[in-house]
């Protein structure tokens, strides 16, 4: 029973972070939004995760695809953790 609640918390954290990543990318279309308190908070929470992907994923012209790769990496980590959790419990 405790394992279920742990999984619910982990699942919720992954889901929230995925939405934060999407919101951060959408905020890039409106530069003034990054200057707000929420924009700065998202930047502090998301940029450390995106930084390694930006070093290795090339841009396509003016389009930065590293957030897409980062989102998929987070998605597959979520699936992998779920599979591992199911095997253990």
How does this model look, in words?
- By secondary structure, the chain is mainly alpha-helical.
- The protein has one domain (2-88).
- It has helices at residues 2-27, 37-56, 66-88.
- The radius of gyration is 15 Å and the shape is flat.
- The termini are close together.
Which SSEs are present, and which pair or pack?
Layout: H1 2-27, H2 37-56, H3 66-88
Rg value: 15 Å
Largest sheet: none
Overall spatial form: flat
End-to-end Cα distance, whole Å, is 10 Å
- Strand fraction equals under 5%
Helix content: over 70%
Q: Give the helix tally.
A: 3
Structural class: mainly alpha
Q: Report the count of strand segments.
A: 0
Rounded mean pLDDT score: 93
Number of domains: 1
Series of secondary-structure elements, N-terminal to C-terminal: HHH
Poorly predicted regions are none
Task: Summarize this structure briefly.
By secondary structure, the protein is mainly alpha-helical.
What are its keywords?
single chain; mainly alpha; 3 helices; 0% strand
